[in-house]
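note to self — DONT lose this again. spent like an hour looking for the file last time. sequence + predicted structure for the chain T wanted, 427 res
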Amino acid sequence: MEQTCSFHLPSYPNTTSTPTTPPPDYHSHPEGGEQCLGAATFPRARPTGTYVKKSKSMTIILTSQNPQASMPSYSRNGSVNGFILIENRTSVTEVQVELVGEMSVVIDRDRTTPLVQDHQTLWKYDSTSSDPESSSSSTPCPSAIPFACVFPPTFVSPAIVPVNTEPCSFPLPPSVNFRYPGEFVAAIEYHIKATVIYGRSPSLCFWNKMKTLTIPLSYLPRDRPLYAVSSGISFFSSLKIAPEEWHQTVSAIKPRLEGTVPPIDCSLFVPSLKVYGLSDIIPVHVNLTGPIQSLRELMPLQQHDKMNRQPSLIHIHIVRQVYVSLKNGRHAVRSSVIGEGKVHELPPHIDDTGWTNEVEEGIGTLHWESTIQCSSTVTLGSFRTDGISLKDFIILQVCPVKKSSHFPCHRVEVNIKLVTDAAGFDV
């Protein structure tokens, strides 16, 4: 006996006639109340042009260059690829290329450290050679000879290698040129040099003649932070949700004479990674906590008069320190401001209700927020090598508005590392 079973499928709305809820709008950048938690690495466009330098006897062509650049540029582990074109090839006996890097420091005396010495013989005349595939051959020198020299990732400084110890290596530093007349000179320079040796002409039978052509190179190893600086969310919300995202530096602002007024607690907050791209906008937060009497010594009651605005109490800068040293222990330091923060005071203000002249007791807290960014002229990140180092700091200065204040100017330093690129970019 056969039985027939019937199945009933659930009904679905007709999408052609029934409008559905549209998908939410998505944006490539965070909007209000949103923040970027992670981003894929964006590939960097590779230059495809050439850089050409020519003399009477030869031409050097460097590939993979920006044709608008004033100097060929290379990043970490970059390969200097190109061709040497030779005009008169009949008397050429040898063709060489050399990648050279050197660091020099001058204070009261000079110190020179070799960084790169990659010497290659590209072609050599040898009348006894019978192998036509050999680079040493009796055939005439080629009109175009390719070459490739690679920047090494590290170098060994002979100045600090003691006897019978393992050599100490440093990352290969970027090209720099610091000149402060009367103080010091520090330079790290790289160049590629082609040499053509002539000697087979009857008129040159007793000596060889050399022609050289040199091109200065810019070496800029790129780097980026592990993740981006959070943005689009207030400091107070972020501190509650993810306190580990902030690095706090606590210090005490003490009066000039002990016992005149109680000290004030100063807290400086910066993003905890402390590694930022040169183009990053870095959020900073400052709070001062202490007796109201002491806070008034720093910042008296304000007048809401835009034409008579008082000087700012809080100043935030990025300061770069260039440090150079010699083997004899001599060293020199030069500091400069490379970024200035935009500071805004947050409520409650000192002239709000409750902060009147009659109130002498009680504890108060003042807050400021700021964003700071490097100047667009800065192209180098922080680095340290034997003899030269670039150190960067976020500097907070609390300078009393009252000239007769019991408090001196207070300074807080936070050591940071600046890198060439923002998070998410391929380096």
